[in-house]
Amino acid sequence: MTVTKNISVCLIGDPPSERFNSMKIYETDLSAGLAELPEIKIIGHHWAESGKPAKNRYLAALQGYRNRHWRYPSLLKPPPADLYHILDHSYAHLLARLPPEKTVITCHDLMPLMVEGYENSLGGKLSLASFRHSVSYLHKARHILADSGATKEALTEMLDLTGQKITVVPLGVDQIFRPGKTIPDFSKPVEVEYILQVGATAEPYKNTMNVLRSFSLLLKNRGGRIRLLKAGKPYTREQQSYIDKEDLAPYINYLGFVERGELPDVYRRASVLLMPSLYEGFGMPLLEAMACAVPVVTSRRGSIPEVAGEAVWYADPDDPRTIAGGVETILDDTKLRQELIAKGLLRAKAFTWKRTAEETLIVYRKVMDTI
Hints:
This protein has 371 residues and is of the alpha/beta class. It folds into two domains: 7-172 and 352-368, Glycogen Phosphorylase B (Rossmann fold); 193-348, Glycogen Phosphorylase B (Rossmann fold, 3-Layer(aba) Sandwich), CATH 3.40.50. It has 13 helices and twelve strands. The protein has a six-stranded parallel beta sheet with strand order 2-1-3-4-5-6. A six-stranded parallel beta sheet has the order 9-8-7-10-11-12, sandwiched between helices. Helix 6 (208-221) links the parallel strand 7 (193-198) and strand 8 (226-231). Helix 1 (21-35) packs across helix 13 (353-368) and helix 9 (284-291) crosses helix 12. The relative contact order is 0.13. The model has no long low-confidence stretch (mean pLDDT 92).
């Protein structure tokens, strides 16, 4: 059939009690982008309160699994719509409460299936089992949106999905991420250089131990004239033990959770973003840093080359010496630093939420034409 009327789409995001910051951003910015387009009517879905979490962390974890796989599906009462869009593959099992032929799902990554380490603890094993259960429902969706070609490839290889069922729709970067009003003079020496680490620490793919090892090398090589800015979740017990052993604590500025509106200022304080991930399904901090005129040291794993192109410095994520070497090269080579900043700014401009919304609408129309 040919679509001649507005398409009504019910967007189903994560329940507020479990919503990761990245998923909140995706829901908020995609909704805003779609609302600006013709031929579409967005219907929001509002979750009921899930109650207070248990005080004991083990009981809270079990409560979380119960909520995700039993309570939330029972609470899902979607309004009438032409299409339903589950915005997080971790909730793909909600498809059991929706008409599969009218439902699309966004898959951001298959991280627990791609990177080793999740099976090393009881909590990790539970998370992996929960994840496997959820993504098993992707087969039943009418269509899948993937953030990157790397995620699409993972879906076809790990879950045996056909490529025709998957459309790559890259994410965007918010316009609040932009360079500062004054351009630093990189030819002048500074007392302290700030290296930025953003996001999670416990997840194996973030490669936090090698971030810390490379930072330890940088401290030794640069006589302590360097600091690590840490924005996001705290370090794990193992990571903190290494920090204590190497006496890194005096050189780490832990910022904790940073509100989104304040994050651009954090980026602008940094000389380099350090993100040597073992895998990424997209890699939003890469774009945010580049949009703020901050050079990036990262890896060639997963989706990163798709997002960053040749606008970053690539290092071997398994070798702290090459990671540290990449940072030092950028700090010491003013011409290279300025070239990476210019390339990064240009690269980031290609990723907008307007583009994401427009390409998402194309998928909606494609699905409607087959119903």
